[in-house]
Design a protein that fits this description.
The protein is of the alpha+beta class. About 15% of the residues lie in helices and about 20% in strands. β2 (about 15-20) and β3 (about 25) form a beta hairpin. The protein is globular.
């Protein structure tokens, strides 16, 4: 899964908008996506947009 963090006008910047694989995903949707991996571990990496992941 690859994405970026964007400004979310709907929340006046209080919550970021996630754009994952070209689709806008809100935090509730993101949480539901992760629930299928309950009990697993994960690693979150934040990188400058100029870096290739």
């Amino acid at each position: 899964m690859r994405g970026r963090i964007e400004w979310d006008d709907a929340h006046d910047g209080r919550l970021p908008l996630l754009v994952i694989d070209g689709r806008e995903i809100d935090w509730d949707q993101f949480g539901r996506m992760l629930m299928s991996y309950e009990g697993w571990q994960f690693k979150l990496t934040l990188a400058d947009k100029s870096e290739e992941l």
